[in-house]
Amino acid sequence: MEPDLFTAAAEDRQAKDPSASPLAVRMRPRSLDEVVGQQHLLRPGSPLRRLVGEGGGGPAGPSSVMLWGPPGIGKTTLAYVVSKATDKRFVELSAITAGVKEVRAVIDEARRSSGAYSKDTVLFLDEIHRFSKAQQDSLLPAVENRWVTLIAATTENPYFSVISPLLSRSLLLTLEPLTDDDIRGLLRRAVADERGLAGQVTLPEDAEDHLLRIAGGDARRALTALEAGAGAALAKGETTVTLATVEEAVDRAAVKYDRAGDQHYDVASALIKSIRGSDVDAALHYLARMIEAGEDPRFIARRLMISASEDVGLADPSALQTAVAAAQAVAMIGFPEARITLSQATVALALAPKSNAAYMAIDAALADVRAGLAGPVPAHLRDSHYKGAQKLGHGKGYQYPHDLPGGIAAQQYAPDAVHGKRYYEPTRYGAEARYADVAERVRARLRGEPD
Fold it and tell me: What are the chain's domains?
């Protein structure tokens, strides 16, 4: 099957009977002016607008565009709008399921169909970071020769996941997460617009707020829930989509949680304090409340990373690795699957042995520095690699630890003002008990005491 056949069939079906298409499809933007969010990319004269020929002079700039941003914020929609604005054929592929063979088939068809009487092609390639270097290399001829307008999307940093030759030939656009105001505007447009619900229903503020929580920044999810709620209301002969109707339609209870107010901070605080207190069940309860309220999963992941260092520390050195891995996974997959990753990290942190010794240590050291206890670096530790350093006595008397038994030299490292200060006071909990023993032995060796 030709890759864009499904899209073409959907458009044909919508043209014949608009109501047969899902609300999210009917409300798909027809121009850049209808795109929700991303206002930093849509200003007059912006590269994106010049790409579609706005501002005079026809399309300008590179024929390849790289869209970088989290899942569910409209990367596919932008590509579709560009194809419509430039009157080009739209073909969508995913690097998850497609390979070089499928890409070459699209490029070959584009070369055959291009010309005075045929449409040029926009190739939208989702998840391009999943392509290997060799697979990305295969795109270069098509980009250089402008056989297609390549629009590639990635949730990962393209400077690390996309080959330099392709990136240098592309217009890199960084997309931002949709805000509640963005989603709210879209919902209100869908209620009133002839393509949407055409004013058949009204949406009270509490129901609208619940739809925002359900959406979690995902426009399609918001419209799907709105459509379900409106359908349920009209089926009962009602014209108001109440909160109860939305709850019934999407089978979710409204959570009393103001993401911009005290509840936001109170629930986040309760999550961290439950983890600190090792109450895994309470921690999962607060995590569930944050998820159900539509909290940004990246905010939750950041709090877990902080907790891993602040409350677990070296009692379980793997805790931070777990939290960081969870944050990276959340950034890549988004909701709803991210709830599983956040749950795994929360359980691991709540049940880990606890120590705040590393947290207390850096605060104690900072307090001394702020109090003026600094002083010059000991001469034997100063940089001795530049010309003239030896004449200043830099590096003189330094003992290279690797040349000594045990790898520890009995020499002074701290400035005189804080020499002998103990900042790190390890606990005897979990893995930190081993660090406590090691710290005592090392400190004794540094003082020149025998084992």
Answer: 31-174 (3.40.50.300), 262-351 (1.20.272.10), 371-446 (1.10.3710.10)
